[in-house]
């Protein structure tokens, strides 16, 4: 796999576009919940630049475990029930590409930043404030 077009987690911004291509390690996984007919679970993922909450859907919930290195293609970073999450969405794909051997940081957490529309371009979002430096859902690993 080549790194062409890959984006670091610290560079993702909320958007309706499903074009995020990135790679991260799965650090922690929350319990599975039902959203309508779909099984979902929230996870904490990170790369060497930032962490973010990732939402797994359906069979994805059971297919991945902490320590898995995951490659995401055509992902989306958007709000779901007031939580800002990265996910594959309908058009995206995720696949396991390795285990355990990846440098990562737990802060900043991109899901814990308050975003606001860019005054000069309403289609874009800019960081407004840091809500929390670490995930408020998952406790720090260290």
Describe, in plain words, how this protein is organized in 3D.
This protein is an all-beta fold and 142 residues long. 3% of the residues lie in helices and 51% in strands. The protein has one helix at 60-63; strands spanning 20-35, 38-46, 51-57, 68-80, 83-87, 93-99, 113-118, 121-130. The strands form two sheets. Strands 1-2-3-5-4 form a five-stranded mixed beta barrel. A two-stranded antiparallel sheet has the order 7-8. Strand 1 (20-35) and strand 2 (38-46) form a beta hairpin. The longest helix has 4 residues, at 60-63. 30% of the residues are buried.
User: How much is the radius of gyration in Å?
Assistant: 14 Å
Low-confidence stretches: none
* Biggest pleated-sheet summary: 5 strands, mixed, barrel
The share of residues in helices is under 10%
Terminal CA distance reads 31 Å
Spatial strand sequence of the major β-sheet: 1-2-3-5-4
Instruction: Tell me the number of helical segments per DSSP (H or I, 4 or more residues long).
Output: 1
Note the overall shape. Answer: globular
Structural class: mainly beta
Give the averaged pLDDT, no decimals: 83
What is the number of beta strands?
A: 8
> What percentage of the residues does DSSP assign to strands (E)?
over 45%
Order of helices and strands: EEEHEEEEE
Strand-helix topology:
Elements: E1 20-35, E2 38-46, E3 51-57, H1 60-63, E4 68-80, E5 83-87, E6 93-99, E7 113-118, E8 121-130
Keywords: DNA-binding
Protein name: OB domain-containing protein
Organism: Hevea brasiliensis (Para rubber tree)
